[in-house]
């Protein structure tokens, strides 16, 4: 039987990327081959509904994939599939919607008319830690969210918070290592909400990190996004005492540096408590790199509130800041809130924030000159530091290795020039 060829399109968050990798691994083990869209017999699209723009992009991409001449069918899964299954199905006759991601593999195989292991592997697969080629595989440890932020629909698409068993997490880490991974990234919709029982003991995120360090030989673990209240002394202590096995990097969600805006967003922290969490993190790890997400133009945001948020971010000094213009999401309280911000005003504020983000990243990178770090080689002549700064390397350096370097200088784009140690 001819080997079925499947392509993957991932939209949205880190958790989506991890789930896409899992589906790709299942289909690869079943005998399918992961290819690009132009070669594929089928395309699996993991959709995103975090904003109205994300939904519109999802529909556009599904439509485009369905219209490719070489694709007999498209399988759409993910958040938009959960919220608007009928709408996606109506795009084209060859679009199938599978709300349950755990069933995507069997759905694809069923459409091919085969079962797992019934096709031959042609042996032409690229050997990387993930079938989709990412060198830092994600490990999903948590899903869902119990928060009800006024701009967010994800809690409805994903459901309530729930955690993956410690046994499954450890097994996933070991499997990633067996496939060549040197670094893994723990992900979740609300990562800090992890809570499980292991051998009769309650396990929270700091305990899970220690468990991974104690029971697996993984060389480096990284955390994805985390909420400010979850940056606890227990977490920081485990990170600081890990001797670099936990990357000294925290992506702490902010959304706004203005107290009034945070209150309208219904976030579960204040700007002052956020600043205290950052101060504590730097007390434990002075060289820690900090990332964040920021929304500009949230309903009711005045010029003064924007400036307050801008000044707050500048004081913090982020190494990586993702800036988003507020996008109205139907079905959320913020969508019908008064004083919606003019799109042109949002664009202007976004430009200012992005310029600040670039300047802060460059300033944080300059502080690294003369320091040593461990770089994960992710591509030919390219790698990332423990703090997620891009690094230029000798093109002969082996992929998916951790190499020790000294940082010599910083390029204009905040990438680093280094020497091997």
Automatic annotation (TrEMBL):
What InterPro entries does UniProt report for this protein, alphabetically?
Elp3/MiaA/NifB-like_rSAM (IPR006638), Methylthiotransferase (IPR005839), Methylthiotransferase_CS (IPR020612), Methylthiotransferase_N (IPR013848), Methylthiotransferase_N_sf (IPR038135), MiaB-like_bact (IPR006467), rSAM (IPR007197), rSAM_horseshoe (IPR023404)
Identify the domain of life.
Answer: Bacteria
Q: Which SMART domains does the UniProt entry name for this protein?
A: Elp3
Residue stretches making up the Radical SAM core domain: 131-363
Keywords, comma-separated and alphabetical: 4Fe-4S, Iron, Iron-sulfur, Metal-binding, S-adenosyl-L-methionine, Transferase
Co-factor requirement:
[4Fe-4S] cluster
SUPFAM superfamilies per record: Radical SAM enzymes
Listed Pfam families: Radical_SAM, UPF0004
Where would I find the MTTase N-terminal domain in this sequence?
4-113
PANTHER family tied to this protein = RADICAL SAM PROTEINS, THREONYLCARBAMOYLADENOSINE TRNA METHYLTHIOTRANSFERASE
Keyword Zinc carried by entry: no
- This protein's name: tRNA methylthiotransferase YqeV
**Gene3D superfamilies of this UniProt entry?**
Methylthiotransferase, N-terminal domain, tm_1862 like domain
* Organism the protein comes from: Fannyhessea vaginae DSM 15829
GO MF assignments = 4 iron, 4 sulfur cluster binding; metal ion binding; tRNA (N(6)-L-threonylcarbamoyladenosine(37)-C(2))-methylthiotransferase activity
């Amino acid at each position: 039987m001819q080997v079925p060829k499947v392509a993957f399109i991932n939209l949205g968050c880190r958790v989506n990327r991890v789930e896409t990798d899992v589906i790709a691994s299942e289909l690869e083990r079943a005998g399918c081959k992961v290819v690009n869209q132009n070669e594929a017999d089928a395309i699996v699209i993991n959709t995103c509904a975090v904003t109205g723009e994300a939904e519109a992009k999802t529909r556009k991409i599904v439509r485009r994939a369905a219209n490719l001449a070489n694709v007999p069918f498209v399988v759409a899964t993910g958040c938009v599939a959960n919220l608007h299954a009928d709408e996606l199905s109506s795009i084209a006759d060859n679009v199938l919607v599978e709300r349950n991601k755990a069933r995507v593999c069997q759905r694809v195989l069923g459409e091919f008319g085969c079962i797992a292991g019934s096709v031959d592997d042609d042996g032409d697969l690229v050997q990387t830690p993930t079938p989709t080629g990412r060198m830092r595989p994600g490990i999903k440890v948590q899903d869902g969210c119990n928060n009800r932020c006024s701009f967010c629909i994800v809690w409805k698409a994903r459901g309530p918070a729930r955690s993956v068993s410690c046994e499954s997490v450890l097994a996933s880490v070991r499997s990633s290592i067996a496939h060549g991974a040197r670094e893994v990234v723990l992900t979740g919709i609300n990562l800090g909400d992890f809570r499980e029982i292991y051998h009769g003991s309650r396990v929270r995120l700091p305990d899970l990190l220690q468990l991974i360090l104690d029971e697996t030989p993984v060389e480096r673990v990284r955390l994805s996004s985390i909420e400010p209240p979850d940056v606890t002394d227990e977490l920081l202590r485990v990170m600081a005492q890990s001797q670099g096995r936990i990357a000294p990097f925290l992506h702490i969600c902010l959304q706004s540096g203005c107290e009034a805006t945070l209150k309208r967003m219904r976030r579960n922290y204040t700007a002052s408590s956020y600043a205290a969490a950052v101060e504590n993190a730097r007390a434990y790890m002075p060289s820690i790199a900090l990332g964040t997400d920021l929304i500009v133009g949230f309903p009711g945001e005045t010029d003064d509130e924007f400036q307050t948020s801008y000044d707050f971010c500048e004081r913090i000094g982020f190494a990586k800041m993702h800036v988003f213009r507020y996008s109205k999401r139907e079905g959320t309280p913020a969508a019908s809130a008064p004083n919606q911000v003019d799109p042109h005003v949002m664009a202007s504020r976004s430009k200012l924030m992005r310029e600040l983000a670039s300047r802060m990243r460059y300033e944080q990178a300059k502080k690294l000159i003369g320091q040593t770090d461990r770089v994960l080689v992710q591509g030919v002549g390219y790698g990332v530091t423990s703090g997620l700064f891009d690094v230029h390397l000798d093109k002969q350096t082996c992929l998916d290795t951790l190499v020790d370097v000294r940082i010599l200088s910083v390029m204009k784009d905040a990438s680093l020039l280094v020497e091997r140690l």
